[in-house]
Amino acid sequence: MSKAKIPPELQIWIEARRRFRLSHAQIQMARELGMNPKKFGSLANHKQESWKVPLPEFIQQLYEERFGKPHPDKVMRIEERAAEISAKKAARKAERAAKRAASEGSNGG
Questions:
Q1: Angle between helices 24-33 and 55-67 (to 10 degrees)
Q2: Residue 32 and residue 80: Cα distance in Å, rounded?
Q3: How far apart are CA 73 and CA 12, in angstroms?
Q4: Angle between helices 8-19 and 24-33 (to 10 degrees)
Q5: What does pTM read for this prediction?
Q6: Which helix H or strand E contains 37, and what residues bound it?
Q7: DSSP structural state of residue 2
Q8: Chain centroid to CA 91: how far?
Q9: For residue 11, how many C-alpha atoms fall within 13 Å in the half-sphere facing its CB?
Q10: 32-60: pLDDT as tens digits
Q11: Predicted local confidence at residue 109, as pLDDT
């Protein structure tokens, strides 16, 4: 089975997950909160600024405040999300091709 190509907007989240050692759940929470993964560096420097909460705890704290629950109901990995998006895209493309073939068959005569 070939790997699905991961779009650049999702690739950024994979890199942030590796760089800041976040779990799949924490990445999903950050995405649902609308956070920018490019800004994680300024949020994660709790070693220099000891008053800051570590990034994983900060994300969980914000998520619980906004949504009133400690974690998402269903955690989906970025790779799974990319595969889901490409599958939907392929299904739409096939549906459009089928419609186009049907309309050409009925018009051409």
A1: 50
A2: 16
A3: 23
A4: 130
A5: 0.78
A6: none
A7: P
A8: 20
A9: 5
A10: 999 999 999 999 988 888 999 999 999 99
A11: 53
